[in-house]
Amino acid sequence: MNPRELVEHALERLLAKDMRAFAGLWAEAGVIEFPFAPPGYPERVEGRAAIQEYLRGYPELLDVREITERAVHQSVDPEVVIAEFEAAGLVVATGKPYRLRYIAVITVRDGEIQHYRDYWNPQAAAEVMGGADALTTAFAGGLDG
User: Fold this and answer.
1) Cα 126 from chain centroid?
2) How many other C-beta atoms can be found within 10 angstroms of the C-beta atom of residue 66?
3) Which of 13, 73, 81, 89 is the most buried (most CB within 10 A)?
4) CATH topology of domain 3-139
5) Which residues of 6-61 form beta strands (DSSP E)?
6) In angstroms, what CA-CA distances link 128 with 16, 20, 33, 49, 89?
7) 76-133, pLDDT tens digit by residue?
8) Cβ atoms 79, 108 nearer than 8 A
9) What is the pTM of this model?
């Protein structure tokens, strides 16, 4: 699977709420980083098992129902793509609408995600989650519910 196909597949796994398969797209030693992580939020999660554990409770926090405005750009490096997308759905705890834009720089080698830098907006996420404290409580310890 080339990088663009892998990103499209990852977004489909996210929509299907199949976090095990989503995390399974990372290499054994793969990494996810959050360069804009707010205080108390993890800046880096290393290893497929840790990523799987981190993402496990995501569907209990956010009910992502559609991916809109998706675009995957090929960089000059054939292993690196930049994905721009918007996730839309509901915040499970409140039933309020959730809509957030993401940009990710993703390195794919041998059909697996090696490195995923997730440039999301923590301020916008805090607003939809009910405030900074709610965001930190929901995400800081991992998404394991």
Assistant:
1) 15
2) 11
3) 81
4) Nuclear Transport Factor 2; Chain: A, (3.10.450)
5) 26-33, 44-46
6) 21, 25, 21, 28, 11
7) 999 999 999 999 998 888 888 888 889 999 999 999 999 999 998 766 666 666 655 6
8) yes
9) 0.84
